[in-house]
Amino acid sequence: MKISLKINRSLILLTGFCLVSCEEYLEVPAPNNKITSEVVFSSDETALSAMTGIYNQLYIANFSAGWQDSVTVLAGLSGDNIETIRTTDLSFREFQQNEILPNNDKNLNVWSSAYNIIYLTNSLLEGIANSQQITPTVREKLVGEAKFVRAFTYFYLVNLYGEVPLILKTDYKENSLASQSSKEEVNNQIILDLNASVQLLSAEYPDGERTYASQNAAKALLAREYLYQQNWGKAEALSSEIIEQTSSYRLLDDLNQVFLANSQEAIWQLSPVGRGNLATHTNEGSVFIIHPFFSSLSRLKLSENLISSFQSGDKRLTQWIAFQEKLSVYYPFKYKIRNSTEPVSEYSMVLRLAEQYLIRAEARARQGNLAGAIADVDIIRNRASLQLITETNQAITGEQLLEVILEERRKELFAEWGHRWLDLKRNGKATEVLSVKTPLWQETDVLYPIPAVDRMKNPNLDQNPGY
User: CA triplet 357, 359, 360: central angle to 5 degrees?
Assistant: First the structure.
């Protein structure tokens, strides 16, 4: 009992001092960091519990929770994969129409919750650095995990907003007036943090739980980061390292098993246990699956454009998408449980093996290795029960193959972390694709606005062009 109370106390102190909104913590008196450090970082046990608290907060934080204000939903709306059912959902429709106002509450929730997580990781890193009571092995593990989570969070901030404040300390006075850093500087920090995580973390999952950041999770995100930075060689090398670990990861033939807890396709997941109540379903299952009896409560559907992109016989269409007859709409069905208090059976997927095949395929195609790229794409297509490129289009050009890869990414990764929106932006295709469905589209719409309330409180924050 004493151990349990000690762990709970460390979690309460860490979240109490650190987990306040981005606006609020810049205005309150400085917390007594000495007291916090003495308790939370007094032993391996309490320090590890503090990191568990950060994982739990990731499941609550708006941007990462998979719920209505998450990157998955909002960027899905922006990228023409998801649409609103109700015309009265004005905050949603601003994302769908790519006409987001700076005072949009959902946009603020993404921004604020991301900086809350960053503040937590910075607090943990500072606490570890100032503690002499944590063993070297645990110290390395915690630093690696915290830097991974910080890099993960900045990845979405810089790709959604462009130039953002790069905050690496907990000095609330300094943070309250922080100006934006260049995208290059933020991306360099992401790479720096992820490389450190690769060096510090183990490839093993504690107790087999893939909800912990591992060396391979850091490699997977780093492969994606290098792809986005057009470092094709490093992206290919890192994705290959993960793909070659066949004893740990494999594509599952049964698509209904992909999103189960600790599935062999999972590289990193978030557990709904982090929600902190009796509910055990994922937020994605709850937000996307239309209630069988009270369909009027549902707010989101898949776009007709996405549905029409699937070929007949594609297993992803038949197993990852469902149709609701009363509303006559299609909805994501990757997660099968809408509401449950039974033992957890599904975790929210963050990083998975299929993306690594598509990262390697694109990296290889960009380097002129079309045969290697086709082989990777065909692995994904074969699992979906589609005809292989090697059988139907052996004369495919590099540009045509890149288009195929982009489409395969859309169909494989829909309703997962806004991949389509980010893919259109980084490939310079957002205007070409989205101006057709959005009459008021402007090229500046590729960035979300800096929230108005933060700019009112911090005069050093510039607004993105077009807002």
Answer: 65
Host H or E run for residue 84 = strand 82-84
Strands 321-324 and 329-332 come out as: antiparallel
Per-residue pLDDT of 350-405, as tens digits, reads 999 999 999 999 999 999 999 999 999 999 999 999 999 999 988 999 999 999 99
C-alpha 375 chain-centroid distance: 27
Residues 401, 374 contacting (CB under 8 angstroms): yes
Domains of the chain by residue range: 1-201
* Other C-beta atoms lying within 10 Å of the C-beta of residue 136: 7
Residue pair 40/53 in contact (Cβ under 8 Å)? The answer is: no
| Cα distances (angstroms) measured from residue 193 to each of 202, 231, 269 | 15, 17, 20
> Using CA atoms, how far apart are residues 108 and 161, in angstroms rounded to an integer?
12
**Gyration radius (Cα) of the chain, Å:** 22
The strand pair at 321-324 and 348-352 is best described as: unpaired
d(CA 71, CA 62): 8
CA distance 150 to 58: 11
Residues 213 and 145: beta-carbon distance below 8 Å: yes
Residue 270 CB coordination number (10 Å): 23
3-state secondary structure of 83: strand
- Alpha carbon of 375 to those of 81, 272, 378, 406: distances in Å? 27, 36, 5, 15
Answering whether pTM is above 0.90, one says: yes
Q: Amino acid letter at 433?
A: V
Q: Is the dihedral of CA 260, 262, 264, 269 positive or negative?
A: positive
427/410 Cα distance (integer angstroms): 13
**Amino acid making up residue 229:** Q
CA terminus-to-terminus distance, the chain: 54
Q: Which residues contact 90 (CB under 8 A, 6 or more apart)?
A: none
Please give the CATH architecture assigned to the domain spanning 1-201: Alpha Horseshoe (1.25)
Residue type (1 letter), 402: L
* Each residue's pLDDT tens digit, 316-352: 999 999 999 999 999 999 999 999 999 999 999 999 9
DSSP category for residue 420: H
Query: DSSP 3-state assignment of 62?
Result: coil
